[in-house]
Write a structure and sequence with these properties.
about 400 residues, mainly alpha, Citrate Synthase, domain 1, Cytochrome p450-Terp, domain 2, 2 domains, two-stranded antiparallel sheet, about 0% strand, binds alpha-fluoro-carboxymethyldethia coenzyme a complex, Citrate_synth-like_sm_a-sub, Citrate synthase
């Protein structure tokens, strides 16, 4: 279905060569015009949310008001906290996130209103309420999963009403003291927010939402699409792969040694994680923006894992071109997103896709609001049996 134009997606458009634009704005445009958090430089998640939902750039005051609203709504209901606490810490964090998000539909305004009986033209208001509530609660849910799985000895901080969404997330993860990581998370979460409609997670939210499932269960389904290694789980896989490369190569890193490791991966029949894309045909501008972040900070420039990621990006495109299969031999965002988290101490790479999941809610959920406002129909493509396909080909 690559290249098949079959969806309406208002918030962002992905050009194969140029990359993503959010309501017409490139990533550098967004970095220039979207408000940052007090004391920070990077655009906030709520300013990206505002842009995606309304097509307008919020003022700093509007962005702050949205932060306050999200913080106000950010605590988890007790039963969801208990549900998450009851899960074994060996259960993958993405499975836990999907379960927690689905359980939050207990309080769905859309579902309650639908049961009461509402007009189709009113669906969107209740969808909007659910989407805002869900985005508000994601940091507390995701931080609880992190605490339970990796640091059960720590107590969880409550939502701080004075912080922005990502400031709170970082704080609840236990990294509130680390302003560098918090700023990186702001950039990461704004950048991963949307990537037009056809990617597997956003498309899943759209498909499930088209049955009038409420936003919680629609987004829960999307998270399980994101959890696949060809999609969001790639950022976990990249780090695992780069660390294995680092172990094998040792301290004497060279382009030749990286090249050998790349060929070893390809010859064993595996994909090189963090490279290739279903749509992009150039280096991903999200990759470039995260690399720029690394270049602007001396402590990141001297980090061995970040240097290895940068050197890999210099070598891999030629190797993939020579290999000859991949349509896009360039790095995607996942090639670099995890190494900065690792450098700043968030080293548990099985958790990385959860951060992606907190972010992708911005785009997938705002588009659900628009789908309900525009009365978009049930998505139901036609399929063929092999027999019917063969007949079709013979007759053409
Ligand atoms: N390493 C090795 N082989 C690759 C490759 C890679 N990085 N990328 C593509 N290929 C192979 C495919 O496996 C396919 O082989 P096949 O003909 O034997 O099935 C062939 O090249 C053609 O694939 P292509 O059309 O280029 O890519 P697709 O649209 O089918 O798939 C993804 C796109 C992203 C899934 C693919 O490039 C891939 O597997 N990359 C590695 C995983 C990854 O980084 N995923 C994250 C993507 C994204 F950024 C995100 O969603 O987060």
């Amino acid at each position: 279905m690559r290249g098949l134009k079959a969806m309406l997606w208002e918030a962002s458009v992905l050009d194969p060569n140029e990359g993503i634009r959010f309501h017409g704005l490139t990533i550098p445009d967004c970095q220039k015009v979207l408000p940052s958090a007090p004391g920070g430089k990077e655009m906030t998640a709520e300013s990206m949310l505002w842009l995606l939902l309304t097509g307008q750039v919020p003022s700093p005051e509007q962005s702050r008001q949205l932060s306050a609203e999200l913080a106000e709504k950010g605590e988890l209901p007790d039963f969801v906290a208990k549900l998450i606490d009851s899960l074994p810490n060996t259960l993958h964090p993405m499975t836990q996130l999907g379960m927690g998000v689905a359980a939050l539909n207990h309080d769905s305004a859309f579902q309650a209103a639908y049961e009461r009986g509402i007009k189709k033209s009113d669906y969107w208001t209740h969808t909007l309420e659910d989407c805002i509530n869900l985005i508000a609660r994601l940091p507390a849910l995701a931080a609880r999963i992190y605490r339970n799985v990796y640091h059960p000895e720590n107590s969880l901080l409550p939502v701080d009403k004075n912080l922005d969404l990502v400031g709170n997330y970082s704080n609840m993860l236990g990294f509130g003291h680390n302003e560098h990581l918090t700023e990186y998370l702001r950039l990461y979460i704004a950048l991963h927010g949307d990537h037009e409609g056809g990617n597997a997670s956003a498309h899943t939210a759209h498909l499930v939402g088209s049955t009038l499932s409420d936003p919680y269960i629609s987004y829960s389904a999307a998270l399980f699409a994101l959890a696949g290694p060809l999609h969001g789980l790639a950022n976990q896989e990249v780090l695992r792969w780069q660390l294995a490369m680092q172990k094998e190569i040792g301290n004497e890193v060279s382009h030749d040694k990286i090249k050998d490791y790349l060929w070893k991966t390809l010859k064993s029949g595996q994909v090189v994680p963090g490279y290739g894309h279903g749509v992009l045909r150039n280096p991903d501008p999200r990759f470039i923006a995260l690399q720029e972040f690394c270049k602007s900070r001396p402590e990141l420039q001297s980090s061995p894992i970040i240097q290895l990621v940068q050197q890999t990006a210099e070598v891999a495109p030629d190797v993939l071109k020579e290999h000859g299969k991949t349509k896009n031999p360039y790095p995607n965002v996942d090639a670099t997103s995890g190494c900065v988290l690792h450098h700043y101490g968030l080293t548990e790479f099985k958790y990385y896709t959860v951060i992606f999941g907190v972010s992708r809610a911005l785009g997938a959920l705002t588009q659900l609001v628009w789908a309900r406002a525009l009365g978009l129909p049930l998505e139901r493509p036609k399929s063929y049996s092999m027999d019917a396909l063969e007949k079709l080909i013979k007759s053409s």
